[in-house]
Write a structure and sequence with these properties.
mainly alpha; 82 residues; Non-ribosomal Peptide Synthetase Peptidyl Carrier Protein, Chain A
Length: 82
């Protein structure tokens, strides 16, 4: 699965967790430019993403992530290993 497919996959998850029906998620999206993406929402996003892809993130992996594109790359890496 490539980065763009994963970002498309993540859109409904982000829209649901952040309650933003018309959120346009792109690789550059991050907590500063997306309404409602605070620390609690971030935890809920991570849990929803782990459930959706049936993967687990290590705490250290998540700390360096700043943008949706980086998260998509990490998901792709984890899916390739599975």
């Amino acid at each position: 699965m490539d980065r763009n497919s994963i970002i498309q996959d993540l859109k409904p998850i982000f829209r649901d967790v952040l309650d933003l029906e018309d959120l346009n998620l792109v690789a550059e999206s991050n907590a500063t430019n997306v309404d409602g993406w605070d620390s609690l929402a971030h935890v809920n996003l991570v849990v929803a993403i782990e459930k959706h892809y049936r993967i687990k993130f290590a705490l250290g992996e998540l700390q360096g992530l700043k943008k949706v594109g980086e998260m998509a790359d990490l998901i792709a890496k984890k899916l390739a290993k599975a």
